[in-house]
Amino acid sequence: MAAILERKTEDVFNRGKQPVHSGADLQKIAMETIDLSVHYGEKTAIHQVSLRFPEKNVTALIGPSGCGKSTYLRSLNRMNDEIEQCRTDGKIMYKQVDINSDEANVFEVRKQIGMVFQKPNPFAKSIFNNIAYGPSHHGVKNKQQLHDIVEESLRKAALWDEVKDQLHRSALALSGGQQQRLCIARALAMKPEVLLLDEPASALDPVSTGKIEELISELKQEFTIIIVTHNMQQAARISDHTAFFYMGDVVEYGETEQIFTNPQKQQTEDYISGNFS
Ligand code: ADP
């Protein structure tokens, strides 16, 4: 049994050893859910949702408030494990392994599938230590190496130029938009492959929102991004694929352009045209 666990974990986490999908007919898929249901006690918030997330694409999850977008997003890196009475059934396939199984190492799952929340939540530490915290707890002790990770992560999050001369200042002194980019940098420092963003710009002003959107468009060259947004213009601007959620189900999924210009379902059309009651 121990060997199975070892092999499974290795399969999930040794990058590049096995292609996710090698079929020429498939766009490379970073992860997918198969019949995923999420329950809070007796209540089912997500009903057997199957979705595939193409690699190095942005997929937007849209839909009215309370329809399960955040619940579904949190399930993708087992964040719902932290919620009492929350139970997730079905499969979450990542690198050919079901990471919703008891064998998966949740700690490692969250390393590779990072998450950024709606409200910026930097630690009450310096900018440097916010970024270095994760890697140093995962064994990176060499100062130069840590510095390199901090610089690389801040550069990728388009924050380096603004903070490079004040790395030892408190992260709490940054503006809201800078704090959110810092949180993205903190997630990137763990070298994830997938980034889950839960309404990352909804607490920000329009200028900071624009910077986050630009950043997402940059990051998708390297990462697979799954974003919950209530802002349909934002979904249309930044995503490649869109899934429309309603009452815990995916009503429609497709290329963003198609969803917004030629939706196949009446509910989708009503929602995107603002006629949803
Ligand atoms: P959305 O992100 O689309 O606004 P949520 O995923 O937040 O939707 O919520 C989906 C449903 O699950 C709602 O009915 C909500 O009340 C319920 N829910 C969300 N979080 C919890 C929780 N921690 N405990 C119990 N019910 C929850």
Automatic annotation (TrEMBL):
Q: Which UniProt keywords apply?
A: ATP-binding, Cell membrane, Hydrolase, Membrane, Nucleotide-binding, Phosphate transport, Translocase, Transport
InterPro entries hit by this protein:
AAA+_ATPase, ABC_transporter-like_ATP-bd, ABC_transporter-like_CS, P-loop_NTPase, PstB-like
Claim: Repeat is one of the keywords in the record:
no
Sequence ranges assigned to domain ABC transporter in this UniProt record: 31-272
Q: Which Gene3D superfamilies match?
A: P-loop containing nucleotide triphosphate hydrolases
Q: An example of a Gene Ontology BP annotation on this entry?
A: phosphate ion transmembrane transport
Q: Which domain of life is it from?
A: Bacteria
Question: What's the protein called, per UniProt?
Answer: Phosphate ABC transporter ATPase
